[in-house]
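pls design
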């Protein structure tokens, strides 16, 4: 089969690999669509993990082979995959910190080499411990919609970490694909969303996705503009890896508010925060990483009923052989690019 293999920092090669062999409790899935995720982009760009690997974890496809012990699926089922599933028993799981579970940290889908998602290949092997996260895709929905379940899950998980009441005002910094999903989900839950971004095209789209006010983040007087229009902010979501956005949010939100970091996933980069904001003003600086398997059914309903119509943010589709180009565009988005998908 064809697969795009990571051979080192910014080194992706289209190679021929053996089709994965499955065991009795596993699935073989022919990949139809795989989204490009910023987490994989960072690993590829910075060489954060040793090669070789086949990345791609926002994956949907068709079951073409099943192990004898697999139940609940049939060959030919159209499915969305979920590469991390927690044990639900350990200390972290009991505290609902699923992304910290040692079992969750194992990747259960591979196209070869060290498991890394494998979606940038023609076929993937789905291991038994992640089968509970596999979701069947309804006939009316596309594979691309199925591939979006995982990123939507990460956003919904983060939203649920915020202690918000209906009618609260929330700043969402960054209106890329993830930021737009935050804007839409928060608005669906009754929040007033204030959106910022550097691109005017994304700010216009944010208004269509539920934002009540939008501001260009490149303006020198951004804080003054927001304060004059929206005197009270009850929370902030930072959907861009920019320390400036964090510091601005800390200044803008009122006492007892929460600032949620979603995009600061690169380790070893220290930041400066006025800790008195956290102590005296009781502002909470919190993070959210990855997905929550227990939200899969809720996420599937939201996406497959198109209450959250993810089709509207998928702007570019590349064939497997052009995966490197897809990742390059997602790394340096153009004015009209949002979610990038590799399709077969």
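designed seq:
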């Amino acid at each position: 089969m064809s697969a795009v293999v990571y051979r080192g920092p910014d080194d992706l090669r289209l190679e021929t690999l053996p089709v994965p062999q499955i065991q009795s409790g596993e699935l073989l899935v022919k990949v139809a669509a795989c989204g490009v995720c910023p987490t994989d982009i960072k690993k590829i760009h910075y060489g954060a993990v040793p090669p070789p690997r086949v990345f791609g974890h926002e994956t949907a496809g068709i079951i073409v082979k099943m192990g004898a012990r697999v139940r609940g699926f049939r060959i030919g089922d159209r499915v969305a995959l979920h590469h991390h599933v927690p044990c639900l028993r350990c200390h972290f799981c009991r505290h609902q910190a699923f992304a910290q579970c040692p079992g969750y940290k194992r990747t259960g889908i591979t196209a070869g080499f060290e498991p890394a998602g494998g979606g940038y290949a023609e076929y993937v092997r789905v291991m038994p411990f992640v089968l509970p996260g596999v979701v069947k895709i309804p006939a009316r929905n596309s594979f691309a919609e199925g591939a979006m379940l995982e990123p939507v899950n990460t956003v919904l998980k983060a939203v649920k970490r915020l202690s918000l009441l209906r009618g609260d005002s929330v700043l969402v910094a960054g209106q890329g694909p993830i930021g737009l999903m935050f804007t839409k989900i928060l608005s669906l839950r009754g929040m007033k969303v204030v959106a910022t971004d550097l691109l005017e095209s994304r700010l216009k789209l944010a208004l269509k996705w539920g934002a009540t006010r939008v501001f260009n983040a490149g303006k020198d007087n951004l804080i003054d503009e927001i304060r004059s229009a929206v005197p009270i902010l009850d929370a902030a979501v930072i959907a861009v890896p920019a320390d400036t956005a964090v510091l601005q949010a800390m200044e803008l939100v009122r006492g007892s508010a929460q600032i949620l970091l979603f995009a600061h996933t690169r380790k070893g980069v220290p930041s400066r925060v006025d800790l008195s904001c956290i102590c005296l003003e009781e502002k909470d600086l919190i993070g959210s990483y990855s997905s929550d398997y227990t939200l899969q059914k809720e996420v599937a309903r939201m996406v497959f009923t198109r209450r959250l119509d993810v089709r509207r943010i998928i702007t570019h589709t590349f064939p497997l052989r052009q995966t490197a180009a897809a990742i390059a565009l997602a790394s340096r988005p153009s004015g009209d690019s949002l979610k990038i998908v590799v399709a077969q």
